[in-house]
Amino acid sequence: MAAAAPPPPPTPAPTPPSTVPAGSTPIGHPLFARIRLAHPSDVPHIHKLIHQMAVFERLTHLFSATEASLSSTLFTSPPFQSFTVFILEVSSKPFLVDGPILHSHHHLYPPQVQVVNLDLPIDDPEADAFRSAGGGDGVGGGEAVLAGFVLFFPNYSTFLGKPGFYVEDLFVRECYRRKGFGRMLLSAVARQAVKMGYGRVEWVVLDWNVNAIRFYEEMGAKILQEWRICRLTGEALQAYGKVYLLNKALKRLKTIGIGTNNSCDKKEQEFALKIEAKSSYLGFCKSSAMN
Amino acid sequence: MAAAAPPPPPTPAPTPPSTVPAGSTPIGHPLFARIRLAHPSDVPHIHKLIHQMAVFERLTHLFSATEASLSSTLFTSPPFQSFTVFILEVSSKPFLVDGPILHSHHHLYPPQVQVVNLDLPIDDPEADAFRSAGGGDGVGGGEAVLAGFVLFFPNYSTFLGKPGFYVEDLFVRECYRRKGFGRMLLSAVARQAVKMGYGRVEWVVLDWNVNAIRFYEEMGAKILQEWRICRLTGEALQAYGKVYLLNKALKRLKTIGIGTNNSCDKKEQEFALKIEAKSSYLGFCKSSAMN
């Protein structure tokens, strides 16, 4: 996915399980991690995380999302039916899993809490900027901060005849990387896919990011080497809208008799033919065109 | 996209416009082409088209879709909000564009009719098998046959902060290829994207299909060379569901006191730890894991 930070080399032997139930006494420096559905009040944080991702990928020139554009396009459907965001929160104190829930989709995805035992506590220089704005349960002393997110949505396989999930972005803030949180977020999407009877989870990776590729393969993913993404965007996409507008204009002209044989004005006929030619050239329908 | 048939080499000069309004007198052998939203009654035909696509791609071993699986997963949301299918119908007679509409989404996408003038009429050996089952307007003498389809759904760009469309499949039956119908279907999706204020239309192509790549580039698409698709499916995906079930079992065991310090049964404790280890190994949370 676009945001995958290069992971470290794989560890040959699995480490002992570190998962302990919330409420028990963990050893070392426990960090409580919670995955929950995003809430509209998380948008300012999500926006900042996406910007960090653009910085990380050196693609800030392509970054034009605003809090307003995110707010108006996310959260328009119930979770999992369209664009869905899981938020990763961390806290040095246990989450109050039975505390008040600020959003209404708790029943669709009860927050998933895990504990990671660290040798050293994490120094998060941006803790204040990413203090959890709500959207989840309370946590002792407002300790929780956003550490990452994953944005995904349903895709479809015609061969399987069933949906899957496409993971558009996975991002973990720098100081929380290489601690299993990326895996935790991606696993959460995979588990949700299985739970819903979906057939696939897909995402993309840069071909030179060999560490990320190895990590994804370890997670069970296959890398499809032969396929390339085709993208129609910007002016090239807008041109198709112009065809649409041209066709509308043409239709209107014909309705009022301009450009038809009924029209006696030669210039009007020429004008209509010009629009027709432009419309045809831009791809709506050409008798000699292909597939 | 998965179904792109190799198109012929590009024609250097644009051909004269062939689009004529329905109802006027076309020259040559006119073929009336209509793009409309699919209707549940089209599912048997869509299923056959997907199967033809699998045969064309020599991937029938991956084909497991049934009419029932398509029926239960398509048409669950209003058009354009989720999985959406445009049907391409052709007829040697004009469509009755003002005839009765069998489905309720006409206002969301009024059928788009165009005329293609051919030098020779098309011999369609499967015309009877693909006779239009309905879902659209009437057409003189039940002449209309399904010639192709495109299946697409919304995707999301976090950088743009807005949705786009992802084209999962585009397919035109063999005898209708190289006549502009693929372009017509893809253009219809692009126009709809512009109309909805979306930022991108994306699909995939096989890297060795140079003719298709050239065709897409001519249509304004950029081919993203560096990205690779990662796919988690089959047993590898199901394993994540097992983790989910293991965690559920573990939680239940702990609830009833098995495997905790309160439990005095050593074997029960060992069993719970084993589940915990398996669960952790399969990726839910490892303290030494990565990104």
Written description of the protein model:
Chain A has a six-stranded mixed β-sheet, with helices on both faces. The first copy, chain A, is α+β, with helices and mostly antiparallel strands and 291 residues long. Chain A has helices at residues 43-56, 67-73, 181-195, 210-218, 234-255, 266-281; strands at residues 29-37, 84-91, 112-118, 145-157, 162-172, 200-206, 222-224, 227-233. The longest helix of chain A has 22 residues, at 234-255. Chain A folds into two domains: 29-218, Aminopeptidase; 234-290. At the A-B interface, helix 1, helix 2, strand 3, strand 4 and strand 5 of A face helix 1, helix 2, strand 3, strand 4 and strand 5 of B.
Report the sheet with the most strands of chain A, covering strand number, pairing sense and barrel closure: 6 strands, mixed
How many distinct domains of chain A?
2
State the helical fraction of chain A.
25-40%
Number of E strands of chain A:
8
- State the separation between the terminal residues of chain A, measured CA to CA: 31 Å
CATH class value of the largest domain in chain A:
Alpha Beta
- Can you tell me the CATH architecture of the largest domain in chain A? 3-Layer(aba) Sandwich
CATH homologous superfamily placement of the largest domain in chain A: Gcn5-related N-acetyltransferase (GNAT)
- Which geometry of chain A do the CA atoms define? elongated
